[in-house]
Amino acid sequence: MADIQPGTGVDTTQTMNSSTGLTEEEATRYDRQMRLWGIEAQQRMRNATILVVRLRGVATEAIKNVVLAGIGKLIVMDGENVSEEDLGVGFFFRDGDVGLKRVDVAKSRIESLNPLVTVETITDTSFSEDAFESIVKRVDLVCVTDWNRDSLIRLNDICRKHQKPFYTGGTYGLVGYIFCDLLSHDYLAVDRSAPKDQPKSVKTTAIYPPLSSAIRHRWNALTKRQTKEINPALFFAVTAIWQFESQHSKLPDDLNQTDELESISNALISEAEVNKQVLTKAPRDLLESLSTTANHECSPVCAIVGGMLAQDILKALGGREPPIANFFVFDGNTGGGTVCRLNMP
User: Fold this and answer.
1) What are the tens digits of pLDDT across the range 207-225?
2) Which residues span the domain enclosing 51?
3) Whole-prediction pTM
4) Which of 141, 185, 201, 314 is least crowded, fewest Cβ atoms below 10 Å from its Cβ?
5) Distance, CA of 281 to CA of 265 (rounded, Å)
6) Are residues 267 and 311 in the same domain?
7) Which of 47, 316, 61 is nearest to 165 (CA)?
């Protein structure tokens, strides 16, 4: 019910709406979250168009969260059909959807989450440079999930060409990751020089590198303690899977492939000059697990990684908190994750 100021007959809810540019329905639906991150951040989200490429488990969770938060428009791009495997992690799908286009069956269910968000779907995933560029030009942020390294680098470069922030995330069994390239990103950070009883924020700018540069990061500047805190084994396990997929055009799917995955991981660790007191070779048990599970999705891991991906996208759009900088890895075996700062000033 609208608030009426005593003795004036003025609808203060409507007054607020006219001053913020939000409709009464938007102000009501987003009232609680605007109290959390402010009207200005909500306006940025409401004006944003996000492109999500590939509708699997991580994307499903990320889409749910950004749509409920109140972005302006969502474009979902996926050309694949619903499989039986999708039913375990994709809550937009039902048994009867198997064999149908993912985006066709998901569109109405995404819209039902928040009727105020416009949803567009695209089934062409040929990814010709011209076609993808034409889509990128009309969005504010691109998020590509569960894709191979070489394609991610290519799509990231296209986004940089048009100055569009880029996110990617995905899972390999119990291991998940998120990477972001936000170009030159402004956000509000706590001013640590201010008195504790007078906290204030200052505008801060972070410079992000593209994925092609981030994965060539050298780790020799980190101390033993810093390296141990980051737990680099997970990062090199993910990049080893990327390298394996690039060489074989498929993910590892057999325990017998552990030796090759181990060889790739160890070469990457050596090349990156990781502190030898912390890590000289990738843990065998981790690689054995990935060799047999990388090709499968685990619902709880997808939910965690997808939720964090959405949260970070909203941070980037709102500009009120620092997003990840710039590679997050998650281990479902332990329930823990760490952020690796790769080739950032």
Assistant:
1) 999 999 999 999 988 888 8
2) 12-189+299-340
3) 0.87
4) 201
5) 7
6) no
7) 316
How far is 327 from 320, CA to CA, in rounded Å?
20
Q: Which two tokens stand for residue 333?
A: 């075996």
Q: Which residues contact 84 (CB under 8 A, 6 or more apart)?
A: 98
DSSP H stretches of helix in the chain: 12-20, 24-29, 31-37, 39-46, 57-69, 102-113, 129-136, 149-161, 211-214, 224-230, 232-248, 258-271, 284-293, 299-318
CA-wise closest residue to 310 among 330, 324, 329: 324
129 vs 343, residue with greater confidence: 343
- Tokens coding 138: 């009309």
Same domain, 322 and 220: no
- Over residues 248-271, the mean pLDDT reads 93
Lookup: tokens for 149: 């390294």
Same domain, 220 and 93: no
For 200, phi and psi rounded to 5 degrees? Answer: -150, 165
| 319: pLDDT strictly greater than 60 | yes
Question: Closest Cα partner for 290 from 327, 257, 268?
Answer: 257
Per DSSP, the chain holds a count of helices (H) and strands (E) of: 14, 10
